[in-house]
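User: Design a sequence. Structure:
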């Protein structure tokens, strides 16, 4: 499910991928349900592609979300967005003690908690095993469709 949940640089919150075409993606805000176009010049990242720095290897965001879910018993994190940086880092230390203290910033932890709360609010299943599904970057979709149509002729 996290392959279809997107973060768009410069826009708050998370978005669900609705459709893709040659010049843009249509996404729906998980916060207010509004559908908006996201053009090819905008930076879009699927949550399945995001990971958190640790002292060993990077850990996929899905695993961090699962650890938070275990700690919170499936409920949203009660930490206020106005909490101090120390409080955010203390919380992350409880959930992921092996996080890389030099590479993870307070803004990363705030975003992590915000995203987790949005996912819980919308009952997004973090346990769901995702099929290997490639989302074509904007602009490549038409080329892929043309290739598949050529094979049918």
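Assistant: Done.
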């Amino acid at each position: 499910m996290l392959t279809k949940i997107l973060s768009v640089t410069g826009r708050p919150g998370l978005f669900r991928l609705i459709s893709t075409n040659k010049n843009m993606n249509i996404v729906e805000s998980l916060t207010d349900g509004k559908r908006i176009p996201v053009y090819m010049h905008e930076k879009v990242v699927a949550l399945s592609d995001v990971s958190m720095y640790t002292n060993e290897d990077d850990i996929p965001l899905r695993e961090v979300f699962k650890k938070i879910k275990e700690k919170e018993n499936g409920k949203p994190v009660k930490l206020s967005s106005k909490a101090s940086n120390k409080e955010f880092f203390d919380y992350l230390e409880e959930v992921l003690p092996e996080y890389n203290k030099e590479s993870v910033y307070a803004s990363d932890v705030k975003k992590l908690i915000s995203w987790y709360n949005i996912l819980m609010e919308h009952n997004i299943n973090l346990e769901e095993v995702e099929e290997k599904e490639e989302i074509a970057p904007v602009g490549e979709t038409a080329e892929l469709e043309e290739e598949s149509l050529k094979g049918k002729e």
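Helices lie at 61-72, 85-95, 106-121, 141-152. The chain has two domains: 1-49, 50-121.
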